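Hi support team,

I submitted a single chain yesterday and got back a structure, but I'm not sure I'm reading the token output correctly. Could someone confirm the output below corresponds to the sequence I sent? I've pasted both exactly as they appear in my results page.

Thanks,
R.
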Amino acid sequence: MNGRIHSLESFGTVDGPGVRYVVFMQGCPMRCQYCHNPDTWATRGGLEISANEILEQLEKNRSFYKNGGITATGGEPLLQIDFVIELFEKAKERKIHTCLDTSGITFQPANLKYLEKLNRLLAATDLVLLDLKHINSSVHKKITGHKNEPILLFARYLEEKGIPVWIRHVVVPTITDKPEDLEELGCFIGSLKNVKALDVLPYHTMGKAKYEQLGFEYPLEDLPECTKEEARTAKSFIIKGIRKQFTK
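Hi R., thanks for writing in. Yes, this is the structure output for that exact sequence:
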């Protein structure tokens, strides 16, 4: 089986624990206003590469990844769930740590065939990086094109299955940084028993050039970048919400 791959990174350090071999999958249903990889949106783009080819490339520098592993990201890797299943199952045969970086937007709790595939994938997944963009569903739809209900249900499903999760949240000034929303987000995160880490990331504008190259209008043209201090403040509100759960 071949997957549609946007690109491969052989020395990833922010996509899970340790040094990672990062597979950027092609295709994404979300249209996040602050996405820095709009070139991964199209489902028909990318190069067709087999799971074996990817793992053979990883094996050439296996010593680099002894404390890391392989991460499937995107785009949205779950759009190509059959390929990621094959990639992760073959990685586990080689005793390689597997990490799935996903928005969770494809979750279909009423689709038994989909759940069967998802369960098979999760059985070969050591860690999930879950990007929670906004706790308010109407705001979530405004900034991504989709409501967040499937994502929150996916988070609950991962908890039910006992899959370790790292939560990520991008702080976008005036959009995802309101204290009341951050605290509510923290309350949700604090209610999950499988969360192992929280990354609060500052919004940046490094993706602007890609929008220009693709002929796309950049949605947040006049918005300033988030400072590290603003990100730290945002994280404090999330942690406040998390602590609320612990004191109930």
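A quick pointer for reading it: The chain has one domain: 2-246. Let us know if anything else looks off.

Best,
Support desk
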